[in-house]
Amino acid sequence: MSGEYSLELNEDQIQIQKWVHDFAESVIRPAAEEWDEKEEFPWPIVQEAANIGLYGMDFMAQAMLADQSGLTMTVAIEEMFWGDAGIGLSIFGSGLAAAGIAGNGTPEQIFEWVPQCYGTPEKVQLGAFCVSEPDAGSDVSSLRTRAVYDEAKDEWVLNGTKAWITNGGIADVHVVVAAVEPELKGRGQASFVVPPGTPGLSMGQKYKKHGIKASHTSEVVLDDVRVPGSCLLGGKEKLDEKLAKAREALINPKVTSGKQPAMATFEATRPAVASMAVGVARAAYEYALDYAQERYAFGKPIIMNQSIAFMLADMATQIDAARLMTYRAAWLARNGGGYKNAEGSMSKLMAGRTAVWVTERAIQILGGYGYTREYPVERWHRDSKIFDIFEGTEQIQQLVIGRAISGLRIE
Question: Mapping DSSP to helix (H, G, I), strand (E, B) and coil, where does residue 151 land?
Fold first, then answer.
């Protein structure tokens, strides 16, 4: 491990926390209901974030690379999602594409493409990370999207349909995970950058979702999409070596065959997703706490009833536990401690469950009011469910954890 273990925030992190919270409180929250109803990408809000430096390459670099604790990004994300999950994902959604490039690309590719996932305040751009497919969500080893190398032209030809893609079709830079040798399953896959304006890439259906409705989610259709050989993340030589190892591993199980590009990205982003869930849970808890102190029934604030006070006590405890697990996972990811017991997956599993449960309890505390769209807790409850599903379902996290604690290939 490269750093001394500590989950205490430093002065810079506390300042960033306040900065993002102020933006969430003054800009995001007042607009949240409007964009949830519209079900459209909140361009004006993302533009405001870009204007102050909150959406952009510089902030991402500062929060991810300059931070030795690994906590800065989780702190910022929690505050953003405290404001609103749909808008928060619109602001941070490009980060998944950037993480896919950073996790699999060469230094030259990272330098070229990560900034293009964000653009500039004068010209805001978006990134999209394309893994899931209509028949391959949790099972990323079964991707049908194919990448075939045209040696004569030094180009890759991509064909297939991606599903549930954040910023899909409206992004400038799409990072696509495709099968190069399908018989090798996950070990036969590679990641490709599809540059802005590349012919053959189009948006399929846009999904009408239960929650996070301000975030754009759609299919991405790849029809003979040709990209230069330089758009293969990591390069051809590295891919050929990986494929050779994977073929050998089929014959000799003792040979390790490298990491899957999709899973490498998800491993890095799971603490970030957990912090999103913590932010939503905290928003609902704080709102329910205020309501319980102000709402009178039978001549006293309803928080004076043990049934309400104990619910809030459990909510506060669960949120703190989820946050601490998230901080630990983020610290381990940054400091090379490794995930001995799949702490990244543990944090996402815990935080996702916490968000769903806490937001449901918040509705219960508000009673009939909580069930109406006049109060934000029903929106937070709708938003919370996605954290049990995307970037690895609850059951996939349990599978990862089960394999880590047992050392067995549990199926």
Answer: coil
**C-beta neighbour count of 57 within 10 angstroms:** 16
Strands 296-297 and 146-150: unpaired
Q: Which residues, 6 or more positions from 139, have their beta carbon under 8 angstroms from its beta carbon?
A: none
Spell out the residues 6+ positions from residue 92 whose beta carbon is closer than 8 angstroms to its own: 77, 80, 272, 276
pTM above 0.70, yes or no: yes
DSSP class per residue in 196-215: TT-TTEEEEEEP--SS-TTS
Looking at the DSSP bridge assignments, the partners of residue 297 are: 300
For residues 69 and 49, what is the distance between their CA atoms, to the nearest angstrom? Answer: 24
Confidence band for 131, pLDDT divided at 50, 70 and 90:
very high
**Share in percent of the chain as helix, strand, coil (round to 5):** 55, 15, 30
Question: How far is the C-alpha of 343 from the C-alpha of 352, rounded, in Å?
Answer: 14
CATH of 11-117, one of 1.20.120.10, 1.10.468.10, 3.40.50.620, 1.10.540.10: 1.10.540.10
Across the range 385-406, mean pLDDT stands at 93
In angstroms, the CA 371 to CA 367 distance is 7
Q: Convert the pLDDT of each residue in 211-269 to its tens digit.
A: 999 999 999 999 999 999 999 999 999 999 999 998 888 887 665 545 566 565 666 67
Q: Determine whether 391 is an active site residue.
A: yes
Fold entry, domain 261-406: Butyryl-CoA Dehydrogenase, subunit A; domain 3 (1.20.140)
What separation in angstroms does the CA of 145 have from each of 105, 163, 241?
20, 11, 21
Q: First-to-last CA distance in the chain?
A: 31
CA distance 168 to 97: 11
Annotated catalytic residue within 108, 391, 394, 411: 391
Backbone angles phi, psi at 385, to 5 degrees: -65, -25
**CATH-assigned architecture of domain 127-251:** Beta Barrel (2.40)
